[in-house]
Design a protein that fits this description.
By secondary structure, the protein is an all-beta fold. The chain contains no helices and ten strands. It has strands at residues 2-7, 16-21, 24-30, 36-40, 54-61, 68-78, 85-87, 93-94, 104-110, 113-117. It starts with a strand and ends with a strand. The model has no long low-confidence stretch (mean pLDDT 96). The protein binds FE2/S2 (inorganic) cluster. FE2/S2 (inorganic) cluster binds next to loops.
Length: 118
């Protein structure tokens, strides 16, 4: 199955949008480096539409006590309902339980169109 979602410039880096692949709701994310990723638009917790959440980053503890650095800016998809977070560059793995992953779909750019495949 193949679905043309939009023109690639319709999703700016660091943004996302909802779409459908047949009858499957999907969220198409564009990271700040311009890459595209697509996942089932349904949180693994209670099914919230992830496209209504935010793309943000994560924090990582540094060697200095009490200091953290901000990492993966625009690569973490945070659920709008209870803030579970998914790493979109790590196959949609949930940060809290990395063995749980969102269903992912292949995305290609064809003639400047964003195309999602099942
Ligand atoms: S529905 Fe997503 S964290 Fe609860």
């Amino acid at each position: 199955m193949r679905e043309v979602v939009c023109h690639k410039e319709d999703i700016h880096p660091g943004k996302m949008r909802s779409a459908t692949l047949g009858k499957i709701p999907v969220v198409v994310c564009r990271t700040k480096d311009g890459e595209f990723y697509a996942f089932a638009n349904r949180c693994l917790h209670q099914g919230a539409p992830l496209s209504e959440g935010v793309l943000c980053g994560d924090t990582k503890r540094t060697d200095i006590h009490g200091n953290y650095e901000y990492i993966k800016d625009g690569e973490i998809l945070r659920c709008p309902w209870h803030a579970l977070e998914y790493d979109i560059k790590n196959d949609g793995a949930m940060l809290a339980e990395p063995d749980k992953k969102l269903r992912s779909f292949q995305v290609t750019i064809e003639d400047d169109q964003v195309v999602v495949y099942k």
